[in-house]
């Protein structure tokens, strides 16, 4: 598993709200759910994404934007529109229609724009590391790898067939992956360090090893041996490209894994979780967890579980 794939695994569409809205001006759709991630694409026409706090972002035909919550945002025909905002959220969903969770569309025979949206839940601490790498609003211009996905989304949304929600979920995942890849790779962009580091033949290999075998008894020497370079070369190159030493990265990765396991496996003991992420001693694990997370594993489980 590569770093991006690992971080993306909790950002998946599972019964996510999906919408296809045909709009004629003036319009103002206020997305009030504050979803962790919302993907928006205009199939035809144009409009503006207006975040709750931040400058408006134009959305032209086949452009795609991803909006990071929890703040709300509005899709308008033009900045300063005279339209009264229409709240779009859970109450707009119509799961009884075909068994899918479409948002109700606002349709007009003279529609000037068709907006496709997908609201994503984000599960777990692992995927929060992906969200932390994103701005509140990011936009990818039309003409990229996601264009082919849009055609499939439009076709699937136009019919009501068994398994439609599964198809829409997978298409939304595909679209989101294409969008994030292009945004990270945009000319002049500043992607997170781990994104660029994945492509280095040595450090990319090292990152894949740490993600594939987080519980292994890693040392810098062992990692250097597996990647075919000297210990000093690995340590310097890793720090230069990733921004921290390899074992510091490993500890933070293990603690993210542990945080999710503590919530997913409520019958597992702290010792069980410690062993699964590479610690033979639960006391050493608890000390590392508190150092990274600011609280011990038992308190984290109790407080995070009560919030959920």
Automatic annotation (TrEMBL):
Keywords: DNA-binding, Transcription, Transcription regulation. The keyword DNA-binding applies. InterPro entries: AraC_lig (IPR032783), AraC_XylS_family_regulators (IPR050204), Homeodomain-like_sf (IPR009057), HTH_AraC (IPR018060), HTH_AraC-typ_CS (IPR018062), Tscrpt_reg_AraC-type_HTH (IPR020449). It holds the Pfam family HTH_18. Residues 204-303 form the HTH araC/xylS-type domain. This is AraC family transcriptional regulator. It comes from Amycolatopsis heterodermiae.
């Amino acid at each position: 598993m590569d770093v991006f794939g690992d971080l993306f695994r909790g950002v998946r569409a599972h019964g996510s709200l999906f919408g296809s809205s045909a709009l004629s001006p003036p319009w103002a759709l206020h997305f009030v759910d504050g979803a962790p991630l919302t993907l928006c694409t205009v199939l035809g026409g144009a409009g503006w994404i207006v975040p709750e706090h931040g400058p408006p972002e134009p959305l032209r035909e086949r452009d795609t934007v991803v909006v990071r919550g929890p703040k709300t945002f509005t899709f308008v025909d033009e900045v300063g529109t005279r339209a009264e905002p229409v709240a779009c959220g859970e109450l707009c969903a119509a799961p009884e229609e075909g068994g899918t969770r479409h948002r109700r569309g606002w349709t007009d025979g003279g529609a000037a724009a068709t907006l496709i949206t997908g609201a994503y839940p984000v599960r777990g601490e692992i995927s929060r590391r992906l969200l932390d790498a994103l701005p509140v609003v990011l936009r990818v211009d039309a003409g990229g790898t996601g264009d082919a996905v849009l055609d499939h989304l439009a076709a699937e949304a136009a019919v009501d067939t068994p398994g439609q929600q599964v198809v829409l979920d997978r298409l939304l995942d595909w679209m989101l992956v294409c969008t994030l890849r292009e945004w990270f790779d945009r000319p002049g962009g500043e992607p997170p360090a781990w994104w660029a580091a994945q492509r280095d033949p040595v450090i990319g290999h090292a990152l894949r090893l740490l993600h594939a075998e987080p519980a292994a008894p890693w040392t810098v020497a062992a990692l250097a041996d597996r990647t075919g370079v000297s210990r000093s070369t690995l340590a310097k190159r890793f720090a230069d490209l990733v921004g921290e030493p390899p074992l510091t990265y490993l500890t933070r990765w293990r603690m993210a894994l542990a945080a999710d396991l503590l919530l997913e496996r409520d019958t597992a003991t702290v010792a069980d979780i410690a062993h699964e992420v590479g610690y033979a001693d639960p006391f050493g694990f608890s000390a590392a967890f508190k150092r990274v997370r600011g609280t011990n594993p038992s308190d984290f489980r109790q407080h995070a579980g009560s919030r959920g």
